[in-house]
Amino acid sequence: MHRIRFWRSLKLRLFIIIFIVGMIPSLIIYQSILKSYEDRAVKVRTVDVQNQLTILANHLITYNYLIDPSSNVVNAELNLLSNLYSGRVMVINNRLKIVKDTYGISEGRTMVSEEVVRCLKGSSISNYDRVNGYIELTVPITETISSVGATEDLPEGTVVYRGALLASTSTDTIMTTIQIMRKRAQVIEIIVIILLFALAIVLARVLVKPFDRISKQIEAVKSGTSDGPLAVRDYLETQHIVSSFNSLFEKMQKVDESRREFVSNVSHELKTPLTSAKILADSLNTDSEVPVEVYKEFMSDITQEIEREDKIINSLLELVKLDKDASKLNISTVDINELTEIILKRLRPIARKNEIELTLVSLRDVVAEVDEVKLSLVLSNLIENAIKYNSPGKTATITVDADHQYFTVEVSDTGQGIPEDELDSVFERFYRGDKSHSTNIGGTGLGLSIAKSAVLLHKGTITVKSKPGEGSTFTVRIPIKAKL
Fold first, then answer.
1. What does the pLDDT look like over 283-313, one tens digit per residue?
2. What pLDDT, on the 0 to 100 scale, is given for residue 439?
3. ∠310-311-317 over CA atoms, to 5°?
4. Nearest to 371 by CA among 330, 402, 407
5. Please, what are the domains in the chain?
6. H/E element holding 144?
7. Is 28 left (phi over 0), alpha (psi -120 to 50) or beta?
8. How confident is the model at residue 410 (pLDDT cuts 50, 70, 90)?
9. Residue 185: enclosing H or E segment and its boundaries?
10. What DSSP letter does each residue of 229-276 carry, written as one string?
C-alpha cells in the first residue's frame, strides 16, 4: 500500500479515519435501536399473553374444563386468544394429556416435554425463537382448595396444579414493524453516510490545510519569492516542522553566506600574490637599466609570491579532497607518541629559527586506530601555528594523554593569544590571527580549517582556549577505536 501514491496521501487517510469513526457509532446505534425495540416488543407480547393465559387458566378451573371440555365460553376464549395473537393454545391436564388444541390436531395425545413437566411443578416458562418467529409460553393451571372441598390430605388453602396451558404466538407483526423501522433507519443511515462523507472531506481538507501552507511557503522560498522564515503555528506538529525547517534554512543561509565569503576570500588570496608578482615583473619590464642585484631581488620576490600561490592552491586542493573523501579514511594502528615525536623532529629546525622551544609531554603511551597521514596533517598545522604565532624565547608544549575511549593531543603556546570574540572564527577558512591578510607571518589561513575537517573525519573534536597575551591551547580529542 505504501507504494501506491494515492494511498500515501495524508488527506485521504484522514478522510478514511473520520468517515470510519463516524460510521461505526452510527451503525452501532442503528443496530442497538432495532435490537432494543425487538427485545421490548417481545417482552411486552410475552407479558400480555401470560396475563391472558393466567386469566384463562382461572376460567378453566371455574368451568371444570379439564374434566368437561365442552364449555362454549372457554372454547370461545381459547379461539379468541389463538386468533388474537396468531398462535396456538393447548390445554394439558396433570396426566400430560392434551385436553384441547386450538389447531384441533393433537387432542387426546400425550404431551411429554421438559417445559410442560416443569410447568406442572409451578414454573411459568417463556422461550423466544427468533429464527422461526414465535414465542412459546407455558402457564400452570392451579386450584386453591376451598373450605368446601378441603380434606385431610388437602387442607384449605392448598394450591394444586391441575394442568398446564401451552401457547405459541407468532411474532410476525413485530418483525413487520422491525422491517418498517429498518427501512426508515436505512434511509436515515444513507443521509448520515452522505453527511459523514461531506464532513470527512471538509475536516480532512481543514486538518491538512496547515501542511499545504507549509508546502506553499517552502515552494516560495525555493523559487526565491520569499526569503523569510516559515510561520505556520496551527498544530504542535506544524510548529516542529516549521521550527526544523527554519533552523535548516538559517543554516543554509549561513552556508551560502560562508560560501560567498569563501569565494571572495579565495579570490583575494589568489589575486594578491599574482598582483604582487605582476607589479614586480612590470617594474623590471619598464626599466631597461635594472642593476643585476635589484633584478635578482625582484626575481626572488616573484618566486616567493609564486610559492605562496602554490601553497594556497595546494591547501585548497587538500580541503576539497577532505570534503570529497569524507568516508575514505586509511585506518591503521598508530603509535601516537611516536608519530608526534617524528613531527616535532621535522619542525624543530623551524622552531629554532624562530627561537621557540618545543616540548613533548607523554602522560601515557597511546596506540590508536587512525589515518596516519591525516592525523599528521592535523598535528603539523597546530604545531606550526604554535611556532608562527609565538614570541621569540617562548615555548610550545605538546601533551599526549588518553582515557579508556579517547586520546587527546594538546598543543599549547605562550604567544600573543586570541581575543575572546574571535575564538569562534579561528577554524574558518582564511582566518588570520592578526585580523589582516598580511604576509608577515606567512601561511594561507587554511591550516586550522584543514585540521578541523580531518579531526571530524575521525569522529573527534578540536577545541581552543586562549587569553590575549598568555597564549593559546588547542585540544584534539579522537576515539582510540575507529568509528566508521
1. 777 776 767 777 777 788 788 778 767 766 7
2. 43
3. 90
4. 330
5. 10-176 (3.30.450.20), 228-324 (1.10.287.130), 331-479 (3.30.565.10)
6. strand 134-144
7. alpha
8. very high
9. helix 172-223
10. PP---SSHHHHHHHHHHHHHHHHHHHHHHHHHHHHHHHHHHHHHHHHH
